[in-house]
Design brief:
The protein is mostly helical. It has 22 helices and no strands. Helix 19 crosses helix 20.
Length: about 500
């Protein structure tokens, strides 16, 4: 079997794996929303490419590379939302009589040829068409498009490397920070902010659309391909061989929680899961980093000045930890759900413990948002409004997913684990939680003013928070009605 045949076989296996996934039907609905969002984004990108193309028509065609520099930073972070590393499906093939290097290389090529990489052509093609009409030669226009696409592929390989390293150790985030920081920061430090920015722009204008840039891009693509291939093989071999550093330490006990009975036991389980579960721990660390950056931006810059931006970022800081974890509520417990159903009302105690845990977690964003409060960007009433809206309304909606989620989530996700799961209800609730409270707040403050508007939201949030025993009991009752269907789904996805 040559590499082309192997590539076709692996690609067909990936498509069959997606179709056989128990969540395939629900994913169809989620994909529909994703395609609609992609269509709107494409229209926006076409407008950007057209505008920049008209500004560069008959002048310097390298203007596209100024824009590409910023788009590739955006592209790098957007890939974390959905694109997995090439190592994702290596494990089932490692015991087959096929060279590991061939398998890994095929997965890397698939990532390079992913349809996601053509999204940025919605910016490049309108730009290229306009500058071609403005006098750029036909072959030069084709070369311009190919060079921009090569930069996108280079960015995809760069993302693979960083994502694979970050999955192992969080401190590898220092790598992209160092790369982007040195590329932007060094000229600014050497020449000053204004002159350094001009120097940076002039450098891109001079060398952006040249053979030297194409040669550098080609060399970097080859280097990153080799590095990704070597790293993926090494990590996959280590995982399959169970070559992990195991440090044995005494089990942490939270004796002060024992006074709360079973709820205390489940609270202790939640804390230990956040400390020991690699995937969950990374979500909390990423959340702390993101909220800290937003807090500093809002406190010390004028980046977000509009009422909508201020409100949505305030809500985002409070909702983040619950949204990224509770959207998959009962997923980790699906690995041992049978034991939970053997004790009367054990699930109800678990739901209560989860609710109390995520309410306590809100202390973190509350402390991190002190700088914007001190600087006057956030008012005390706004903070309290979104705090109680989160504990009452947002958590009330997210906990509803406990009734319908029926796919187990690995207790410790690694490079060979499956990707995140989504269904239609999860997507709808996520959108509602992130946007609807902001629109309600803007409407109330526009009608009644800031003081009365946020006070109404506080009252609503406090009422829903105080009613949590009732809606948690309702969720528990509905879960018990669907317990056999859910258990079957958890068993099928372990």
């Amino acid at each position: 079997m040559n590499r082309i045949e192997l590539y076709k076989l692996l690609r067909r296996n990936m498509k069959l794996s997606e179709k056989r996934n128990p969540m395939f039907e629900q994913n169809k609905f989620g994909k529909l929303f994703a395609y609609l969002g992609l269509a709107f984004m494409s229209i926006y990108f076409i407008a950007i490419g057209t505008f920049v193309g008209w500004s560069a028509r008959g002048g310097d065609e390298s203007a596209i590379f100024i824009m590409m520099a910023f788009l590739m930073i955006l592209d790098f972070f957007m890939r974390f939302g959905g694109q997995q590393t090439p190592s994702l499906l290596i494990k089932p093939y490692l015991l087959m009589p096929i060279r590991k290097s061939y398998i890994v290389d095929c997965f890397i090529v698939m990532a390079m040829m992913n349809s996601y990489n053509v999204i940025w052509l919605t910016v490049v093609l309108p730009y290229a068409f306009i500058v071609w009409c403005g006098g750029l030669g036909g072959w030069e226009t084709i070369a311009l498009i190919m060079l921009c696409e090569a930069i996108v592929i280079l960015n995809a390989l760069w993302y693979m490397l960083v994502r694979t390293l970050v999955n192992q150790k969080m401190w590898w985030w220092a790598l992209p920070i160092a790369v982007y920081g040195s590329a932007i920061g060094i000229p600014l430090l050497v020449f000053g902010v204004e002159k350094g920015f001009i120097k940076l722009v002039d450098f891109i204008y001079e060398y952006g659309f040249t053979w030297a840039c194409a040669a550098v891009a080609g060399v970097l693509i080859a280097v990153l391909f080799v590095v990704n291939s070597w790293l993926s093989r090494r990590l996959a071999d280590s995982e399959v061989a169970a070559e992990e550093e195991k440090t044995f330490s005494p089990t942490t006990r939270f004796s002060f929680l024992e006074r709360f009975g079973m709820i205390g036991e489940y609270l202790s389980l939640e804390v230990k899961s956040a400390m020991r579960n690699k995937a969950i721990r990374q979500r909390y660390i990423q959340g702390l980093v993101v909220i800290t950056m937003l807090s500093l931006l809002l406190a010390f810059t004028d980046t977000y000045t509009g009422a909508f931006a201020v409100n949505i970022w305030c809500l985002y800081c409070f909702v983040f930890f619950g949204a990224v974890n509770l959207v998959k509520i009962m997923g980790p417990e699906g690995n041992y759900i049978d034991f939970l159903f053997t004790h009367r009302e054990s699930i109800l105690d678990l739901l209560r413990a989860k609710y109390y845990f995520f309410c306590i977690v809100l202390v973190l964003p509350l402390l991190l948002l002190i700088p914007p409060i001190v600087s006057g960007r956030f008012s005390i009433l706004m903070i309290l409004a979104y705090l109680f809206i989160t504990t009452g309304v947002a958590y009330g909606l997210l906990f509803q997913l406990a009734v319908y989620n029926k796919q187990s989530l690995p207790l410790n996700q690694k490079i060979t684990s499956k990707g995140n799961f989504e269904n239609s209800l999860q997507l709808v609730i996520e959108l509602v939680v992130f946007f609807v409270p902001v629109f309600i707040a803007l409407a109330l403050t526009a009608i009644f003013g800031d003081t009365l508007g946020y006070t109404i939201m506080i009252v609503l949030g406090v009422a829903m928070t105080a009613a949590h025993p009732y809606w948690l009991r309702n969720i528990y009752t509905r879960m018990m009605r669907r317990r056999y269907e859910n258990i079957e789904g958890f068993h099928a996805t372990r």
